[in-house]
């Protein structure tokens, strides 16, 4: 077949690449990303524009996939196949192929990426690259000083990254921490992250939800009780959670729900590092760090006489406030794919979102925050046997978001192109109102600064 009967122009070639189910990732001779197709969203939770221009070092710093493969290719200049784990928790197999000029100079690196769970048999030779991987591990560890993503923590938005940078600074000290935030924002995840970064990381991390335990049992759960204290109780007595947390951290979730009488005993623990079990006569020493959390306004609770002011000030040595998901626009897409990968693994399925479905999810206000998003994604994975999650698969309440007061968008009044443009407009305007600069807007929306400038120029004149 000659070229005249089947022209393959640039537009046609891009259409082929963009519609490839497998991820295709291309860098130049210096390891700078020059092309990646939309399949990358499935693996990294980032749109292609967010990766274009990234260097190999930046990719390693952001830990998009580990261990990194580009440095190996730049060193070896031969084909390498490697099994990796992505930032959203997905296991992939990447084959990187160097492309050389007629003079033998490296021109491009073309990588084909496939989900390992969709491969019947994976054949790759990792033994030849182990030595190089070990070498680059040390370099990657240095780059990870600003790394804030692990198996349970996904953060891309600047507001959350700033918070996590503060967490890294305060985690090594022994000061008490008070975590504030709406229900479902991930206060427990942050508490555990603090513990893992602290000198107590090898000790226990004990959690108690103060709102889930009846008042009359909460004291014995925390402090334990001596033998013979209660009728029908264990004759040997019971060890409390404070003692179980020795050498580690004690996380008091929903601290505002602790009754006033018990608050005095908690205060004594913090001040004197001692306590007595219920019904006991001897004091025991306390050796645990206390991290507390609440979705209530403790200042108002103090004013209302429902929470002790002295306890509040003791707990609030370091205060961390987690922003709600609606103020973390840059985190929504990575979280969607993080949970999609998580539940696809759990239920041994494979799903994709259509673009119009993603647009609705990005526009949603998420009053239930990350917990709401996670439960929704799990529900969609379970209830959708086809593998393609479409707009009509979403709950009616979410679809109605498209024509709510906040967005001003009625899906029935738009073509698909018009609806997508309206979603784009709302995201850009919201980001500009919050951040005011093209750099921060670009970072929030995961696009290049030039793209952010173009979008702001297109829509900013419509701001009131």
Task: Describe the structure concisely.
The protein is an alpha/beta fold and 464 residues long. 41% of the residues lie in helices and 16% in strands. The protein folds into three domains: 137 residues, PAS domain (Beta-Lactamase, 2-Layer Sandwich); 165 residues, P-loop containing nucleotide triphosphate hydrolases (Rossmann fold), CATH 3.40.50.300; 137 residues, Helicase, Ruva Protein, domain 3 (Orthogonal Bundle), CATH 1.10.8.60.
Given as residue ranges, the uncertain stretches (5+ residues, pLDDT < 50) are 120-128, 138-151, 403-409
Named at the architecture level, the CATH assignment of the largest domain is 3-Layer(aba) Sandwich
How is the CATH topology of the largest domain named? Rossmann fold
CATH superfamily of the largest domain: P-loop containing nucleotide triphosphate hydrolases
Annotation field: number of helices: 19
């Amino acid at each position: 077949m000659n070229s005249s009967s089947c022209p393959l122009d640039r537009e046609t070639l891009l259409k082929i690449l963009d519609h490839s189910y497998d991820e295709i990732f291309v860098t130049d001779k210096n390891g700078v990303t020059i092309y990646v197709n939309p399949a990358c969203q499935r693996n990294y939770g980032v749109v292609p524009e967010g990766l274009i221009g990234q260097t190999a070092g930046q990719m390693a710093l952001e830990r998009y996939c580990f261990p990194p493969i580009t440095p190996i290719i730049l060193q070896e200049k031969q084909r390498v196949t490697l099994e990796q784990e992505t930032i959203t928790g997905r296991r992939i197999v990447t084959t990187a192929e160097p492309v050389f000029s007629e003079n033998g100079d490296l021109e491009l690196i073309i990588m084909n990426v496939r989900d390992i769970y969709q491969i019947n048999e994976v054949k790759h030779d990792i033994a030849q690259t182990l030595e190089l991987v070990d070498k680059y591990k040390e370099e990657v560890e240095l780059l990870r000083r600003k790394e804030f993503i692990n198996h349970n923590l996904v953060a891309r938005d600047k507001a959350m990254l700033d918070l996590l940078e503060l967490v890294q600074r305060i985690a090594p000290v022994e000061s008490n921490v008070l975590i504030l935030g709406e229900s479902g924002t991930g206060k427990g995840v942050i508490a555990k992250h603090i513990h893992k970064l602290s000198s107590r990381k090898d000790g226990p991390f004990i959690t108690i939800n103060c709102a889930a335990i009846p008042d009359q049992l909460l004291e014995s759960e925390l402090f334990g009780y001596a033998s013979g204290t209660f009728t029908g109780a264990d004759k040997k007595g019971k060890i409390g959670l404070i003692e179980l947390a020795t050498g580690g951290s004690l996380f008091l979730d929903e601290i505002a729900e602790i009754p006033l009488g018990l608050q005095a005993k908690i205060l004594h623990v913090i001040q004197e590092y001692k306590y007595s079990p219920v019904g006991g006569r001897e004091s025991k020493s306390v050796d645990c760090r206390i991290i507390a959390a609440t979705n209530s306004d403790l200042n108002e609770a103090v004013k209302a006489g429902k929470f002790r002011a002295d306890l509040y000030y003791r707990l609030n040595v370091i205060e961390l406030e987690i922003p709600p998901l609606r103020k973390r626009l840059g985190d929504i897409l990575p979280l969607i794919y993080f949970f999609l990968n998580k539940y696809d693994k759990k239920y041994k399925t494979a799903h994709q979102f259509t673009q119009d479905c993603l647009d609705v999810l990005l526009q949603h206000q998420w009053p239930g925050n990350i917990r709401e998003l996670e439960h929704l994604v799990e529900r969609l994975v379970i209830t959708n046997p086809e593998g393609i999650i479409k707009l009509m698969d979403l709950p009616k309440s979410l679809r109605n978001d498209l024509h709510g007061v906040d967005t001003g968008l009625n899906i029935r009044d738009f073509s698909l192109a018009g609806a997508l443009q309206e979603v784009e407009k709302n995201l850009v305007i919201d980001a500009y109102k919050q951040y005011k600069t093209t750099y921060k807007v670009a970072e929030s929306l995961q696009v290049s600064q030039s793209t952010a400038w173009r979008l702001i120029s297109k829509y900013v004149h419509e701001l009131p």
